[in-house]
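Researcher: Please translate sequence to C-alpha cells.
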Amino acid sequence: LTQDRKRCRESTMPKLRSEKGAARRALPRTTAPMDMAGPADEEAPEVEAVDAVISAAELEGAASADGAAEEMEGDVPAYPALSAKELAGGKTQFRRVPVPPHRLTPLREAWLKIFNPVVEHMKLQIRMNTKTRHVELRTCDETDDSGALQKAADFVKAFMLGFAVDDAIALLRLDNLYLDTFEVTDVKPLHGDHLSRAIGRVAGKSGKTKFTIENATKTRVVLADSKIHILGEYQNIRMARHALANLIMGSPPGKVYGKLHTVAARVNERY
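Model: Translation complete:
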C-alpha cells in the first residue's frame, strides 16, 4: 500500500507543477509601472476651478466681516451713568436715624456742620423731624452716587453715638471706615463697683489711656456708660478692641501699651 501511494504522488506532482507554470506564462508581463492616470486627469482642472471659486468667495466674506467689525468698533454705543434714583427704579429712597435725648442740644449746635456736607457734597435732602425725633434723609434728582444715602446715614449715626463732627465726616470721604459697638459686659460679666473700675481702666486718668489707644491704632473711641464705640478701619478696630478687652479683663495699662506699640509697629512696617 505504501509503495502504491508513493507512485501516485510521484505521478501527480509533475502535472500540478506544469499547470502552475502555464498559468504564470499566460499573465502579461509589464516592465513599466502601471499608469493610474486616465479619466482622473481630465477632471482635475474642474476641481481646481471650483476651489478657486470657493477661495474667492471666502475672501470676499472675510473682507465684508472685517469691514463690519470696523464699523461696529467705530459706532460703539455710549451709555451715560445712571443716577441713584434711576438705579432704584425711579423710587425715592429714605433713611431715618433716631436722635437720643442727650444728643438733641449737640445736634442743634452742630446742625450746619452736618447739613452742608450732606446737601452740597452728597446731594441729598435732610431734615429734622421734631415730632418723631428722627433725622430723615432721602435721595433726589441731583443725587449721582448710589451709595451716598448710606454714607450720609452712617455719618449722622456716628454723630448720634458721640463722635465729633470732624471725625464722623471721614465716613463721607473714605470707603474703608466702619463703626463697631460692644459693651463691657460682653467681655466680662461685671456689676457694681467692678464695672465702674473696668470703665475707669479703659478711660484712664483724664482720658490718657483712651487717647493713647486712639493714637496707636489710628481710631476714635467713645465711652458711653458701659458701651464702647470705635470708628476706624477694620484692622485698626480689631487692634483697638483687643487692647480694650485686655484692660477690661484687668491687665495693667503699661503692659497693654507695650503690646499695642509692638503690634502697631508691625502694621506700619507691613503697610
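Researcher: Any highlights?
Model: The CA atoms of residues 54 and 60 lie 10 Å apart.
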